[in-house]
């Protein structure tokens, strides 16, 4: 008979074995979870009724999870913006703006990568688009090929950290414990500090390299700069202003509390379609008139809302009528522009491709989530949470030792696993331990135990997000390197792509150390002295009709209680009864 304490490491080892064989991760998780679930029932670690938690959590925490609806919206938004020409215009204008200085093209790639990361949220689209546009130009003007490939790959992975990153949405969904959780808004607020510091590190590295190796990063010749003065600034603003508006629609509305993550993602998807229409060559005078009318109606609605609406008194009838008219004008303009997107053949094909890529990614995420749910329920049923907590709480060095070991563990896992797989498999196991170890570190700065617990999860999640950026940059398995290899000309060697990525991986690891040592970068914008809502998972509550049952059964971090483990079937009156309970608030 296999002892209970051997089951968690055997489950983890079996999962690694499945993935090394090359079996898809979603089905590996499902197969290992069901196999060890049946084995645990046979060995008496829990009974068949315990597996009711699997379908309950699939329907209650995966298929009915409103937060996960933000993923297809952000993916669709990135797919549309990938092909609408925004990246090309911004790289051209920024390249000419920074071109006169050494390393100017590198600065433009980093800055444009940061801006695009805040409106696309997908690494593949960003790396491919920027490489196709900037790689030939940088090679033409004599940039070192290793620096060129490295900066293009690194600037594409910036989108993993810059809100509205899909990684942050997934981590917010997985960073839940019994007492606290990390919501998407807090994850976005916490990620801004590290995002800006990382951009500063990339720019500083480019600056130092341009001084040490000036021939590696030459200035663009004057005759190659076609725009100057006011015309150049106007072209820069034509790319920056629409991007800023879209960023506010997605992030500003959510951070101000106007919209939920799903609603802000929907607005971003709609804004991406409108932006694609505005940039299309078939955008005519009537379209411009509809767009300007929509802007005027939106401005009028904002003015009425600011000056005539008050919480203490009801809006007057004339102001209410004017507000309704303004909103009708906005809706008509939106309907007109969306209809134009359907009627323009190129845009219709682009939207169709966006739907297809969004469907593929969403289906992949849902299947991995279903597999990880099955694995997690069985893993907790054999006291896997206790096993993980015992391993990490017994590490030397306190919270510093914990973060060092976890980050090294994630760094090496990223050689073989995608960030989705790491988030769904590893993060739920580590979240309760991270809250227990890191919350005391933040207690003084956050003001209350509840706020410290939530901030600890946000700090831990953002740190893992910075670390998981390297999963796209690791030679030889980094997906960003594969994307770059696919669009690079034949004269660019694969060895140059791999060697060029190493300095930027080093910069990303320096960023991990900075976030670990200075948590204020993450927690500075978070609410002090308030707790975040607890997970909305459905709860399985067990009541045992025993007169001397004074000890409550153990409660897991995913709000699922484990039935009493006994190899023998209890009598009829002692059978556990499962009841659905409302989510805890």
Tell me the layout of helices and strands.
Blueprint: H1 7-21, H2 25-43, H3 53-62, H4 70-83, H5 86-98, H6 104-117, H7 123-140, H8 145-157, H9 166-174, H10 184-212, H11 229-255, H12 261-278, H13 285-308, H14 317-343, H15 345-381, H16 384-393, H17 398-413, H18 419-425, H19 427-446, H20 449-468, H21 479-487, H22 494-517, H23 520-523, E1 539-543, E2 577-581
Antiparallel strand pairs: 1-2
Helix pairs in contact: 1-2, 2-15, 3-15, 4-12, 4-15, 5-6, 5-11, 6-7, 6-8, 6-10, 7-8, 7-21, 8-22, 9-10, 9-18, 9-20, 10-20, 10-22, 11-12, 12-14, 13-14, 15-18, 16-19, 19-20, 20-22
Subcellular location: Cell inner membrane
Membrane topology: Multi-pass membrane protein
Protein name: TRAP transporter large permease subunit
Features:
about 575 residues, two-stranded antiparallel sheet, globular, mainly alpha
Outline the structure in words.
It contains 23 helices and 2 strands. It is globular. With 585 residues, the protein is mostly helical. A two-stranded antiparallel sheet has the order 1-2.
